[in-house]
């Protein structure tokens, strides 16, 4: 799913046909469609819950999810799927959003669960997980990036629109990686609950960021970052 030339075994290239054959084979591996990725941060949730199952959405969080769902529906886009983190707050946010997008299939994954992607630079004083957490979570979140953020499959004929409901750390890391920015800078960005981040992946592999953490569709008194 990367550069087409990297998908061809050049050692097996027919020397007699040379560049003509290479050009023909490259066309076979080139993507034709654009992927639109909508990264949604979960809504506000109960911070006092000890276990994940107890960290359910607050009443305000449920309102936020409703507002996000309405905003996505108002775009008039035919979404292909909703992929969401298996954590409770992301699952509940997805259920509320999906009511506004009937017929769009939902897929749960552990890859998008919250975690510590990479040690931030510069460091912060208010958040210092143990070093082992970066090794455990970082590999998983990097796997999520590689699994979900790539150019369209060569068989895809039309542009696609996908929603990913997950967490602030995951989204910030993905944005840095997708834009080829130093991933250690992920903690310099802030995302509101229920916010929408829109990435566009062109057939040539280039990525553009259209919106980052948009909550302009929410009344000011409904906006939180907890």
TrEMBL record:
Q: Which UniProt keywords apply?
A: Hydrolase, Membrane, Mitochondrion, Mitochondrion outer membrane, Necrosis
Record's subcellular location: Mitochondrion outer membrane
What is this enzyme's catalytic activity, as reactions?
Answer: O-phospho-L-seryl-[protein] + H2O = L-seryl-[protein] + phosphate; O-phospho-L-threonyl-[protein] + H2O = L-threonyl-[protein] + phosphate
GO MF term set: protein serine/threonine phosphatase activity
Q: Which GO terms describe its cellular component?
A: mitochondrial outer membrane
Its domain of life reads Eukaryota
Which PANTHER family is this protein grouped with? PHOSPHOGLYCERATE MUTASE-RELATED, SERINE_THREONINE-PROTEIN PHOSPHATASE PGAM5, MITOCHONDRIAL
CDD domains reported for this sequence = HP_PGM_like (cd07067)
Question: What would be the name of the gene that encodes this protein?
Answer: Pgam5
- Spell out the InterPro entries in the cross-references: His_Pase_superF_clade-1, His_PPase_superfam, Mito_Ser/Thr_phosphatase
GO terms, biological process: positive regulation of mitochondrial fission; programmed cell death
Signal peptide start-end: none
Q: Which family does it belong to?
A: Belongs to the phosphoglycerate mutase family. BPG-dependent PGAM subfamily.
Name of this chain's protein: Serine/threonine-protein phosphatase PGAM5, mitochondrial
The EC number(s) this enzyme carries: 3.1.3.16
Principal place where this protein is found?
mitochondrion
Please tell me the species this chain comes from: Probosciger aterrimus (Palm cockatoo)
The broad enzyme category this protein falls into is hydrolase
């Amino acid at each position: 799913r990367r550069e087409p030339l990297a998908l061809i075994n050049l050692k097996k290239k027919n020397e007699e046909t040379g560049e003509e054959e290479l050009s023909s084979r490259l066309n076979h591996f080139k993507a034709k469609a654009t992927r639109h990725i909508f990264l949604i941060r979960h809504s506000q949730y109960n911070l006092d819950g000890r276990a994940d199952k107890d960290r359910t959405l607050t009443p305000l969080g449920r309102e936020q999810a409703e507002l996000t769902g309405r905003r996505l529906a108002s775009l008039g886009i035919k979404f292909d799927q909703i992929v969401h983190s298996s954590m409770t707050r992301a699952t509940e946010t997805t259920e509320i959003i999906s009511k506004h997008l009937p017929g769009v299939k939902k897929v749960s994954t552990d890859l998008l669960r919250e975690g510590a992607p990479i040690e931030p630079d510069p460091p912060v004083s208010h958040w210092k997980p143990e070093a082992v957490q970066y090794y455990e979570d970082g590999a998983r979140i990097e796997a999520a990036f590689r699994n979900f953020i790539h150019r369209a499959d060569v068989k895809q004929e039309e542009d696609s629109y996908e929603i990913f409901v997950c967490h602030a750390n995951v989204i910030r890391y993905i944005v840095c990686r997708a834009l080829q920015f130093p991933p250690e800078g992920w903690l310099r960005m802030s995302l509101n609950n229920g916010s929408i981040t829109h990435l566009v992946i062109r057939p040539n592999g280039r990525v553009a960021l259209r919106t980052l953490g948009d909550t302009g569709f929410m009344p000011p008194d409904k906006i939180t970052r907890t």
